[in-house]
Amino acid sequence: MGRIFDAIFYVITAPLRWFGRSRRFRVIAGALIVVALFFAATLWALDRFFPPANQASRVAAKLEPLPPLPPLSRPSYVIAPVAVSIDAIQRSIEASTPRNFSGQSGNPVSGLLQKADIGLTVNRGNMAVSGRAGELTVNTPLTGNLHITGQLGAAAGNLTGGVAGALGGLLGGGQLGGDLNKAIGGLAGRVLDQNVELRSQVTVRSRPEFATNWRVHPNLAAQISVADSAINIAGIRLNMAGEAKPLIEQQVNQQVANFEGRIRNDPIVEVTAREQWQKMCRSIPLGGGNTGLPALWLEMKPVRAAAAQPQIDARNVTLVIGVQAETRILAQATKPACPFPASLELVPPMENGKLVVGVPIDVPFTELNKLINAQLKGKRFPEDASAAVEVEVLRASLAAADDRLLISLRVKARERKSWFGFGAEADVDIWGRPKLDPQTQILRLTDISLAVETEAAYGLLGTAARAAMPYLQQALADNAMIDLTPFLNDAKKKIGEAMADFRQAGQGVAVDTAINSLRLNGIAFDSNTLRIIAEAEGTARISVTQLPRM
Fold this sequence. Notes:
Keywords: Membrane, Transmembrane, Transmembrane helix
InterPro entries: DUF4403
Number of strands: 24
Transmembrane segments: 27-46
Structural class: alpha+beta
Protein name: DUF4403 family protein
Strand content: 35-45%
Distance between the termini: 112 Å
Radius of gyration: 45 Å
Largest sheet: 8 strands, mixed
Mean pLDDT: 76
Number of helices: 12
Pfam families: DUF4403
C-alpha cells in the first residue's frame, strides 16, 4: 500500500523535478503561462469594452426593430401665491407718506378781505389699513390749522353788491341778512387775523390689478370729509369747512397721484420674477450613485408666465403668479436659453400653491440590464421548499419588440426530490406587456407568455420536475418586474434639493417649496430605450412680511 502512495506522489511531483532539471521545460512552461495570461487579459478586455449581446438582445434581433422614440419634453408648472401681509403694506405706506403738508386758498369767500392770505397747515395721523374681498382701504385722520389774515374791504358794506349780498342770500335774507350787512359795513377797513382748527378724515380705496407689463396698478380713489370749523366775524359765526376742503382735497389728491405713479412704475414684481426665472432655468442632476442608473440631467426651461388678478382678504393681498416650463431628461448637463417674457399673460383664478414637474426619463436598455440583473441575479424560485424543482437565476437581461418587453433569464434548474439532484441550465424568455404600478413604483409585465423553445431545455430533469414546471414558470413570471424605486426616490430628493434654492429669499420674504410625491404616469419604448414618464408634485408659497418704501 505504501508503494502505491509513493508512486502516486512521484508522478504528481514529476513536473517540479523537470522544472528544476530541464531548461527547455522551464522555457515551455513560462511561454504557456504568458500565453494563458495574455489570453485571459484579451477575454477580459473584450468583455469589458465589447460586451457580447445578451440573450434578450439576440432574441429581439430576430424581430423587426421598433421605430425610434420621438423627442419629448413634458410641461411643468408652478403656481405660487405671493401673500403680502396687510401689516407690511401699512408699514410701507406709513413710511412713504409725508406727515404734514400746507397750501394757500383761492376760494372766492376770501373776497370779503383785501390783501387776503388764507393758509392751510395739516398734520397726518397714523394710518389704518384694512382689506376685504376685492378692495383695500386706507384710513387716516388729519388735523390742522386754517390761518386767515387780511383787511375787510369797504365794498363789504355795500348791501347790493359783491360778497355781502352773497352772504345775505346764503343766510336766508331778511332781518339776519340785513344785520350781517350792517355789521360788515361798520367793520370795513379793519384788520382780520384768525386761526381756525380743522379736523378731517381721509379714506383711500384701492382695487389693485395686474397689468401685462409686469406692473401693478393700484387704482386709488380718495374721499375726504371735513368737520365743521367756524370763524367769528362781527359776532357772526361762519363755517370755514367749505374754505378748507378744496385745499385739503388738492393736497391729498396730489399725494395720492404721486403714490399711484410710484406703484405703477415700481419694477419690484418684474425684478423678483426675473430672479426666480433664472433659478428655474437650469439642469438638475439625477441618477448615478446608488440608484443603479446612469447619471442623467433634468433640464428645466421656463417658457411662459401668467398671473391672476390679486385676491384680498382681512390679512393679506395675494398675488398669484404661475410659470410654465418644459422639462426633459438628458445625458449631459445643459445651459438652456430662457428669455424672460416681455409681457405677463393674465388668466382667470388658478389653483394656488401647486408645483408640478414633469420628468420624462429615457433609460437605455444597456443600463436597465444592469439594474434588472442586480435585482434578479441569485434569486431562487419557487420559495416553497417542498417543490420538486428549484431554479436559480444566473443572469437577466431586457429587450423590446413590437408592443412587448422581453425579460430573458439564464437559470439553473435542480431536482430537489431526486437522490442524484439532476440539473441543467436553460434560457427562459418571458414576454409581457409593461404596466406601471403607481403604488409600488414597479414596472410589471402583464399578459405573460413564455417562449415555447425554452421548455425543451428541461429535458434533463426528472418526470416530477417537469410536472412542476408550470408552477415554476408562473413563479418566474410573477417576479418578472423592474423596481424603479431607487431612481424615483433619488429624483424626488434631487428635485427637492433644487427647489431649496428658491427658499433663499431676501429680508422679509419667505419662500416655502416642497416636493411631496413623485408618481409614474406612463411608459414608451423603442428597440434601444425605455422611456418612463414621471411627475413630481409639491407646493410653493411665498409670504411677504416687509416691503420697501414706496
